[in-house]
Design brief:
single chain; 324 residues; mainly beta; eleven-stranded antiparallel beta sheet; four-stranded antiparallel beta sheet; 3% helix; extended
Amino acid sequence: CQLTDPGTIPGAIYTDASGGQWASGGPAVPNLWNHGSVRHDNFSPRVSFNIKPNQDQMIYLTYSKGYNPGGVLINTAYATLPQELGQVPAPDNRTFYKSETTDSFELGWHGYLDDHRYLLSAAAFRENQHQKQFINAYNLCPTASGALVNQSLTSSNVPGGPNSCQNASGATYGGFIPEISVQNANLARAQGVEASLAARFNAHFDMQLSGGFLDAKFIDFSNAPAGFGPANGPDSSNMNGIELPNAPRWSGSVRFNANANIGDVLWFGSIGANYTDIAVTSFSTAYNPQDPHQWPYWTHAVTLVNLDTGIDLAGNHITLGIQN
């Protein structure tokens, strides 16, 4: 076992009796792009102003700055496969991406009403996400020459069409080669409102209610990967106005809690429901401008109902829970 220059072989390799070299369970491949460095630093301030008209109410305004460092992503399969197909040298399989920063503003109010029987909160917020990091997952195919191309690109020259994979001899290769990269959207925005109410009607009955609206979308991402939005040239697309992943527009929840003494037994119970609107979970190269929700990775609107009930007898609990 010996070590070589990090620019050629990733880590340790094994040399057998015939002189052949092996790494990670297969032949060692020269010219791997497995090195590179990035350095980032950031100062993320947070400023908040609070005004209390009285002891039971408060108005606040908050500004904060968020930060997600940039980096480099290395796809080893992208570098090794061309060697197996006879292509030398390996292509640069590194993806360098920028740091993401977020400017967040929130204006809100919360206060007690009716002698602290009710607690009401409401807020409006906005986030401007600069250089938002976007994970791009797609498939590569080898061409007749052994080069790898993104099969989702309309300009790809994969033999047999964009959905076929063939090796250098023209025979079908064993499937697509998955590839992942990270790209930066110039600007994304998330804004919305949210409110909640907690009410205690008496010693035996209370309620919690909350709801929110979220408008989250790409604002400036006209150089997005091909297939992720309306075409913007042969090898890119325009995702301006397309919603962000994991950002349901509407959400809400309600929960009722009750208890009662029955002789020496304390009965307690609660019932609640949670609603989440339709949302994209992640993207693929299957954008449909007629129905953008019909991508492979999205979720329907979901309503969950939970029921819990039980008794307490001298400190011993028996509880039954039902979730739907």
